[in-house]
Each structure stands twice: as C-alpha cells, then as structure tokens.
TrEMBL record:
Organism listed in the record: Pseudoprimorskyibacter insulae
Annotated region (Disordered), positions in chain: 387-410, 640-660
Keyword entries, A-Z: Coiled coil
Keyword hit for Phosphoprotein: no
SMART domains, sorted: ParB
Pfam families for the chain: HTH_ParB, ParB_N
Name of the protein in its database record: Putative chromosome-partitioning protein ParB
Length: 660
C-alpha cells in the first residue's frame, strides 16, 4: 500500500513525541547542546523540512523529526527569540492512522535526513550577523562551537552571490566555491570567476586559487608577513577578511617593491661583510638566466689557533650527530632538524678553513633572492662580462667548461625509497588506466573471466578486484607530485554517477546502471580498477607478461603522469644528484658548478629544472630531462629482479642507508 501524507499546519504546542520514533530511546539526542545548531538554523531560516506526524490521543505525535521538534520547543522557551510561541504553526505531513509502516518511516527519515545545505548554512551565518546584529562570539555560544569555526563559515557566506548561485546549481563544486574565499573582495571574486568561466574549461579549486594570487598577497603568506609592517607604513591598501590571516595586501606592485628593497639591503650587508665588489637582488632566482654567470670559490687557508679549536669542536659534534641520524625511528621533523644542524656546522667549518682571493673578490658579488619563505644569498657570482675566459687564469677559482661531473659511484636505492617509488608508480599506472577506459575494461573483464574459468594461478597478481580501494602507503604522501592524482580526479569528475542515488534501492540503481551507454560503463570500470590496482614496479615478461605488455600499451611514458620533484630529490644524496645531472642529463658544467653548493640549493635547481626545462638546454639535454626517472619507475626499464635486489640489500650503516 502506498502511503500519502497530507500537508497540515500544526501549532507547536499541539505536538508531542511518538513512541514509534526510533530515537525515542535515546533522550540524549534531544539535549539542548545537541540541538543548538538546529535551533539556530530554524531561528534564521525557519523549518526547511516538514515534520512527519500522526494523530495520537488528540495530539499530533512526531513520527519523524524529533530533533526538529525539540529545537522548536527550545525556541518557544527562549524568551530572547522572537516569533516562536506555543501557538506558532509549522508545516507537517500527516500519516494516516491505518498506516502500518510507522517505525519503518521513522527509521528511514532519521537515517537519510540530510544536514542543511552547506550554502544555506553559510548564508545563515552571514544573515545572523548582517540582519540580526549578532557577533561571531554570540553565534559561537548559540551553536556551542568556537569563534574561529564561526568566522570560517562566515567567510564562505560572504562569497559573491553569483558564485554561490553557481555552486547551488552545481555548475561548480562546493570546493571550487570555497576557493574564492581566498580573497575577501567580492568584486575580485566576480572578476576572476567571469574570466575563468569564459575559458570554457573545467573550473577547479586549484585554478581559482592560482588566479587569485595575482590579485594580491595574503597577510599570512611568507611574503605578506615579511613586508606587511612596511606595506602598512606606506599606506598600502588591505582587503580585510573576517579572519585576519586571510586579509589581502591588494597592491601587488608595492609588495614587490618592498620585498626587492629588503632583498637588496640583505645583499648589500653580505657584500660588505664578505668584501665582494657588487650586490644585487631578484624576487625569484631564475637558474636558466643565471646559467651565464660564473662563480668563484674560496681557497683553503691555514686556520689560526682559535679557528682550529672551533674546528675540532665542530668535528666532535658532527660525529655525534651522524650517530643520531642513523636512528630509523626518528620523526621527520627531528630528522630534518639534524640535517639542518649538520649543514650549518659544515658551513661554519668551511668558512674557518677557506677564504676568497683578492682578485676574485674584486670581480664577484652577491645576489639575494626569496626562496622557501626566506632570503637566500647566492655568493660569489661573476657577471658574464666579468667572467675570466682564459682557462686556468692565475688566482681564479672559477670553474671552466669541459670538466666532468664528480664521480659519485653507483646509485643504489635504499628499501624505504624503493617502496615509496613503488607507490608513486602504481598511482601513475592508475591514472593511465583511468585515461584508457576501453583497454582497462578489457583487462578487468579478462581478469574476472580467466580467474574463474582458467585452471592454475591467477593471470596476474597486480590487479586486486575485490571492490575495495587499494591502500597505498608513502612516507611523504603530502609532498609527492600530484599529476596522477589530478588526472584521476578529473576522470572521476567525468563519470556519469546519475545511477548512484542513495535514495534508490540497489535494484533501481542497477537498472539505471544497465541503461548507461557502453562508453560510460567502461569509464566506471576503468576508474574502479585503477583504484584497486596494487603498487608494483616495472615487470619483466617472465614475471608478469600480462601487466608487462599492458603497461607498455597504456603507459609508454610514465612522465605523462608523474614528474620528479623536490620530495624525491631531497631523499637523494648530494653526490647522486650531481651524478644524475652530469651523466644522465648531460649537464656536466652545471654539476661542476653546483658541486660546492649546499644540497638544498642542488635540490632547488633540480626541482626547477624538471618543473619547466630551461630554455638554454640543448635538444639532447631537454629530451633527457623530459624522459628521466629512476630505472625502476620506467615502464620497460630494468628487470624487476635487479630493482628489487638493489632495494632489499642496503647496508644498514652505509652512506646510502643514512641518506634514506
């Protein structure tokens, strides 16, 4: 029998609890602190969803909507709230007396009851401030939450109405809408929204944030924090936000001017201290542009008695730190702190034992740039017009061309790094699968059919089709290259999920699924298979011929889904990085020039190089950069036995194990 629920208006005082309501045995559900949020919502927006009631002993018993009923009673009792009395009528739906599904109806509504639409919630907070004159503090007390949480919600409520409307219409996602809150100016939000939507491309939160960065600098950004005091002193405009850390320094030109001035002052201070001839400053240190610069280095000197004493102290401390760094149980922060301390001590010891020649000081200088949230000094640079051309010029320590990169020995990947590369390769393979749905559909169906019908072992262990996402562990998941993640997310956004409606029964969902076009089904299967594929390395034909051939077909170039970045280079020894630059990439001169730089500088160079290959590279160098990845990551790279042997056999007290 189909139930029909007649609309009826009922006074709040005529409502009572229904014994069949599934929450009637959980009175704590109706405690004031548990319904504060709902009470505040109804006070601002009214009752958005009618109560389900049934006549019982002359009253209207609330079959579904007990928490809303409790919130209404709280509003009646709260004398500070206007418009709610026992006689105030609210919308209800009346269930017939002979309906025999009351408990089922109550259970269904209480389980599937959706929270208030997120956009409605944002706007409700804003209205409570703008119309009712409340403050974040009073709203926080009403909702039983923190002031910071309220301000965070209010920021979204103040997003430009056109953008909120787009999110409500689902032409953009809620996450994309939230990204516009990065800038507090609604006018700026609207301009960026219109500019991006004109491009007729899929609008992502990342794209929005990048576009907003060109419209000012947040006060909480490293540059914003660094220049703010001087910026305000010069009368720079600030777009204020409800949360102070999200306010924006709107005059980007003034921000850059102040930053350059501070960089220039730091460069000049270093020039005077070290005795160089000139000083300069740039916001971003462009390694391609600086490739034409030479560099001079200090030569060894005999330390005096005081310097030698300090060198001995540093040596003793370094030995102690090396022992501490061998502890594999160290947290990342503690490990990084040890590396920073070692670098600082090594720099100090080097300064005590080296000095620049007078000739080098007379033609070299210092450039200050902004890197990693702080001022970075590039010492001993020689401008192109001042570079000594004669090979072996007397008194000069400038590197000349034609030298080979330092011999760093064979690179051997420690087990921890090998396992993480294994995860990254699996993620790249998943992205390739999602982008090749027809081939992946064939693979999935072949795996299912052959596992059931064929005798013997499974055709491949690389695919785990068991309706569960494969867990992928990684030591630095938040730092890895996100290309494959973005590709999989884009593939997910393109899926037809109209059949996946929680309000439908599984049978109805299946019927809708079967009605999908074959291409849409292939995309769904490909995405599911990509999510269940386990971590793996390049497989040789003898070990897994199926995946060996399939990977070559859909992922002939892993670099289409993955790019080496600083997270990877940070885990390589300095000598490895120089060897890769000099031998694998053909950048021998750069490797020689960087040999006396800190590992941090070399990592930054490699990160920049792979993110956007320099215009000065030769065709061969550019091709090498575009193709390079660790051998075990290559689709048709080294045999699995070789990669696994290298990854499973590091000496625990070797330099390689320490570098991991």
């Amino acid at each position: 029998m189909t139930a029909s629920f007649k609309p009826v208006s009922v006074a709040i005082g005529d409502l009572t609890a229904h014994p069949a309501n599934v929450r009637s045995n959980s009175p704590e559900t109706y405690d004031p602190e548990n319904i504060a949020h709902l009470k505040a919502s109804i006070a601002v927006l009214g009752l958005l969803q009618p109560l389900l009631v049934q006549k019982l002993d002359g009253k209207y018993a609330v079959l579904a909507g007990g928490r809303r009923h409790a919130a209404l009673k709280e509003l009646v009792a709260d004398k500070a709230v206007k418009g709610f009395t026992a006689k105030t009528k609210v919308d209800c739906r009346l269930v017939r007396d002979d309906c025999d599904v009351t408990t089922a109806l109550s259970l269904a509504e209480n389980i599937t009851q959706a929270p208030m639409n997120a956009i409605d919630e944002f706007e409700a907070f804003a209205r409570m401030m703008e119309v009712d004159g409340q403050t974040p503090e009073t709203i926080a007390r009403t909702f039983g939450t923190t002031v910071a949480a309220v301000k965070g919600r209010l920021r979204y409520g103040l997003i430009h109405p056109d953008i909120r409307a787009a999110a409500r219409a689902k032409t953009i996602t809620l996450d994309t809408m939230k990204a516009f809150a990065e800038h507090p100016s609604q006018e700026v939000q609207r301009e960026v929204f219109e500019a991006l939507t004109k491009e007729d491309s899929y609008l992502q939160a990342y794209t929005v944030r990048q576009a907003l960065k060109s419209r000012g600098v947040q006060v909480s950004d490293d540059i914003g924090t660094f220049v703010r005091e001087e910026y305000e002193a010069r009368g720079g405009a600030i777009a204020a936000d409800l949360l102070e850390e999200h306010s924006v320094l709107e005059d980007a030109a003034l921000v850059e001017t102040i930053l350059l001035e501070k960089l220039a002052a730091a460069a000049e201070e270093a020039r005077i201290k070290l005795g160089f001839a000139w000083a300069d400053s740039v916001v971003g240190y462009d390694y391609a542009t600086m490739a034409d610069y030479g560099r001079v280095y200090p030569s060894p000197i005999e330390p005096d008695e005081a310097s030698q004493k300090r060198i001995d102290e540093i040596t003793a401390e370094l030995e102690k730190l090396q022992l501490e760094m061998e502890d594999e149980g160290l947290e990342d922060d503690a490990n990084n702190a040890l590396y920073e301390r070692v670098d600082a001590l090594e720099d100090e010891a080097r300064d005590l034992q080296e000095a620049y020649s007078a000739e080098d000081l007379a033609r070299s200088g210092v450039i200050a740039s902004w890197q990693g949230g702080k001022i970075t000094l590039h010492i001993g640079l020689v401008r192109p017009e001042d570079t000594v051309k004669e090979e072996g010029a007397r008194g000069s320590s400038t590197n000349t061309t034609g030298e080979e990169a330092p011999d760093a020995g064979e690179i051997s990947y420690p087990a921890s790094l090998a396992e993480d590369l294994k995860t990254e390769r699996a993620m790249a393979l998943g992205a390739a699968m999602a982008l090749h749905p027809e081939a992946t559909l064939d693979l999935t169906l072949f795996k299912l059919v052959s596992d059931v019908l064929a005798s013997g072992m499974s055709v491949t262990q690389a695919i785990k089709i068991d309706a569960r996402k494969e867990y992928r562990s990684h030591a630095k998941m938040d730092e890895i290259d996100e290309t494959s993640l973005e590709q999989v997310a884009a593939a997910h956004d393109a899926l037809d999920l109209s059949w996946l409606d929680d309000n439908r029964s599984p049978a109805d969902q299946f019927a809708a699924f079967r009605a999908l076009e074959a291409g849409e089904k292939a995309k769904l299967v490909a995405y599911a298979t990509a999510s269940t594929t386990q971590s793996c390395f390049a497989r040789d034909r003898q070990r897994d011929s199926l995946m060996h051939d399939f990977e070559i077909e859909i992922m002939p170039d892993i670099r289409a889904h993955w790019t080496p970045n600083a997270a990877l280079f940070n885990r390589f020894k300095k000598a490895w990085l120089l060897k890769i630059l000099g031998e694998d990439l053909g950048l021998a001169q750069e490797a020689v020039t960087l040999a006396s730089s800190s590992k941090k500088e070399i990592v930054a160079f490699c990160d920049k190089l792979f993110a956007e290959p320099f215009a000065t590279l030769t065709d061969a160098q550019r091709a090498a950069v575009a193709a390079w990845c660790p051998p075990m990551m290559q689709t048709a790279g080294v045999a699995c036995d070789e990669a696994e042997h290298a990854s499973q056999s590091p000496e625990p007290d070797s330099e390689i194990a320490q570098a991991a």
